User: Fold Phosphoenolpyruvate-protein phosphotransferase from Candidatus Faecalibacterium intestinavium.
Amino acid sequence: MQVGTGKSILNGIAIGKIKVYKKKDTTISTAEVEDTAAEIARFEEAQAKAIEQQTALYEKALNEAGEDIAEVFNIHAMMLEDDDFVDAIKEIINGQKMCAEYAVKTAGNNQAAVFAAMDDPYLQARSADVLDIAQAMLDILQGTDTQSVQGTEPTILVAEDLAPSETVRLDKSLLLGFITREGSSNSHTAILARSMNIPALIQCKDITEEWDGQMAVIDGYNACVYVDPTPDLLKSLQKRQQEDRKKQALLQELKGKPNTTLDGKTINVYANIGGIGDVGAVQQNDAGGVGLFRSEFVYLNSKDYPTEDYQFEAYKQVVETLAPRKVIIRTCDIGADKTVDYMKLDHEENPALGYRAIRICLTRKDFFKTQLRAILRASAYGNVSVMFPMIISLRELRDAKATLEECRKELVAEGKKVGEVEIGTMIETPAAVMIADDLAEECDFFSIGTNDLTQYTCALDRQNAKLEPFVNPHHPAVLKMIQMTVEAGHRHNCWVGICGELGADTALTESFLRMGVDELSVNPKSVLPLRKMIRSIDLSK
Ligand code: PEP
Ligand code: MG
Assistant:
């Protein structure tokens, strides 16, 4: 068995025989020409045909991958008419008296090099698009055919690189996955593969022509390929592939469908995340938004206090990628089980009951304001809500809100863009439940953190494995607290969600719906099963 590693662009498994795709010899003519006007006409004819081809590819991509992706080929058509590009080609033909092939190749390479040298990774990746359209014109000028790269049986394609137009031309029914030596994760080829749901590995330097015809598995989860895998490994990856297929089938069944019960009650199903790394899972599982962004992971992943700009980027990336979906950012919940050295927090006898979360934020205002400013700045890029953890009093909620307002005023005075944010309170303590009416009057939503609510209601340390036998996740006291919270919230026009683990427990979904819970936010993997459950419930019975 051989193992090749690279960058995965889709979390999936592909199993099958490898076909190594060797590109045709791309030597191009370097002939000089006498009649430059005729050569310009040859070029213009190829340009017009290439534009027609891009339009046909647009139609194909539209059917297979959707509007956003197909747009790539509209952009290609525009690039083919770009004045700078066209002028550069004509200049080489007229000025250097060189043939159209040479002019297209040279101008294409030059423009691709300009893109490749840019700092912005998105613009860098456009270099592949320029090379792609130049190749399209070269194929027309030289009369070479680019279509028949696949055989007759489904295979994993291995290539040095694949252009977006090559990827979309591939017959999907014969394509199990692909591996390339080159390529970037922002390239349109990668974007296309993702949207067409094809497991693929890029930047795999290990590929060799000897792999041709061998059995292989692309493991997109671990960014590697196993060539000639051992029987045990093959079996376990086949199992994983089956699970993925089931999920895909569920996704196809549910995508775009509302989370509505048989008798017409709709509820939001969101996902819980820790950062940008989880956003793919939110999208892949078709969650309606993010109900809990555990922002403390931004702190846990830093060696020192994360700056406002660093946090702004971390939140903005998530918010922008998921817009217009709602992203609820929970302010820093450091302390108890989540500690970082640089904060130098004292050792405590009872950390779960200690100096944590909002308690730290309200006593270290500079620390809190750094985060709130970053969240408010990110709110200009999408649909952001903010919520405060571990609230036990109205005074705390008011203090947190006042600090948020202070930050907003400062940012506006500094001329920085900020959006509108809904404000929420996490209901994680019995104290918060008992004063839920008062809290609801002063915030837009509640999010019930059942993990901590269970811990504090039942006096069961959630970190202590020895207490497992005493844990009843359906403890009536906790369920009653949830019911009380929903009723209090609704009395004051405050919507109520659940973001603790209990939200994913499908044995309770019907009870939550009957209580009137407005939103369930669960780990991304639980989104689809939960949505399926909701759609099977009939509350009228
Ligand atoms: C909770 O307590 O239920 C919750 C969602 O927050 P965390 O698990 O991060 O404490
Ligand atoms: Mg909690």
